[in-house]
Amino acid sequence: MDTPENGKTLDDALSHVGDWGLYQKRMVLLSFLACAGEGMHLITTIFTMGSRDFRCAVPGLLNDTYDIQNEAHARLINASIPWDSDKDGYSQCSRYKNSVNESAWETTNMTSVPTVSCSRWVYSSDVFASSIISELEMVCDRKLYISHANMMSMAGLMVGSITSGALSDLLGRKKSFLFFYWFHMVLAFCSVLATTIPTFLIVRFLVAATGIAFYMSIFVLCTEIVLPKRRVPAALGTNCGWVAGMMVLLLMAYLFRYWKTLQVALAIPLIPGAIGFFWLIPESPRWLLNKGRYSEAHKIMVDIARVNKRELPEKLLLQETDRQTTSEKSKNLEQNQQSTSGWKNLLLLAKSPVLAVRLAILSFSWAVNSMVYYGVTLNMGAIIQGDIYINFLILAVLEVLSYLMVIFVTRWIGRRIFYCLSVFVGGGACLVTILPIVFGYDTVWINVLLSNIGRFGISAAFGIIWLYTPELLPTPSRQSGIGLCSFIGRLGGMVSPYIATLDSVIDGPVGNCAPLLVFGALAVAAGLLCLLLPETAKRKLPETVEEAENIKR
Fold it and tell me: Where are the transmembrane segments (predicted)?
């Protein structure tokens, strides 16, 4: 058995200097903080684009307000704005073409009075003092821009994921992280300058792209600086930063109800990170070794040993370099080039009917998970009735619990069964939202309960699918397969905002539940399909296509 002194591998060196010492824990903390920043800004639209009650403004009344000020104000509204019985309030998108005299209210059939579309609106300030929706007037026939904004966020995630991987492999984890982090910070401040819908859509795309890009860079760096057996707690610590960011966002949104003030308040904490991360975050020693920069990797290992109060033999890493011949280095370079040929690696899966079917099921599951997760989260104010702040707090707590449950439960019942159960719970809870309507019950608190159960189930399923997917794919095609699944998953996220607006197409209580019904049906379908997949718990990772095909249920 090789000892660390032989300089066999980087893992041997990490074992020698402490694979879970103060240095690694500090790195997890830094990743936690960076991920918190990404979590704050990716889902900021929940509050900056918060849904506000509104109605048509009274024509000619420049100081009109949503709240009725006095009896004279009430008469003006009644004479100008029709009553919408379906929404139990004044019309949001149409007004009378001509004002109706008060004396004619009792003798005139008000449904026959001609109406026209509104050109001006007034908004309630009960929850938000101002939002992007009210400032850019994304209401009525412009309401679709809300879905466009969320879709642009999902498109940014997709592009950012691809760009981050390429730049990270080319320039290094640290440089990629710092570039996207600083770019993201500048965009966070500049977003308050978006005064038109096209500008806002572009900013949302770039914020999402840079956010996911620096998150992926720091996530990979964090997992590469620990041994494989420590990657689960390292990944869990990083992902919990996302939830911490949600908590900070909730507090800030509660304190600052004006969307521009909220945006600036969330951007300010990024400044210390832009300075501190430059000095505190190292380059990945694995990436440096892969690029042949052994002396730089050696310096980082010496620093790890110093912080962890261990000693590193002077030639530990350099011995490995000296033993490599020119032919071995050429062979390693050729293997690295082959490993980056994504299309060839995916072709290996496509040629195997068994693995092709499994990849298709996994891709569909990723798409559904992304669709439901972001559909419920980014459109929470429209889908889940009730206080948006309390609902958001519940979602954040449930997400933490789902992550913890994944860590413990998968040890006992495996991946496949637990994934299917999680998806069935999430999808089933969404589908059950139709029952209160059928039986005529008050649906507000029931929908809140069921939608949160659905979000809990899909969060757990999302955590499992990240573990399950690489365990089903062979080593030559593992990274490419995960990349394809993630890409298709983002496409599902891009569709979710439009599903979330089905209530604008379908009227009544059924329309309010329509998004959850679609999400639930797709989640249940994904769970049923995953029953066809084999169990992978306590199995070694398949190295070849043949080994992957031989994994049985």
Answer: 145-167, 179-200, 206-227, 234-256, 262-281, 355-376, 388-410, 417-439, 445-469, 481-502, 514-533
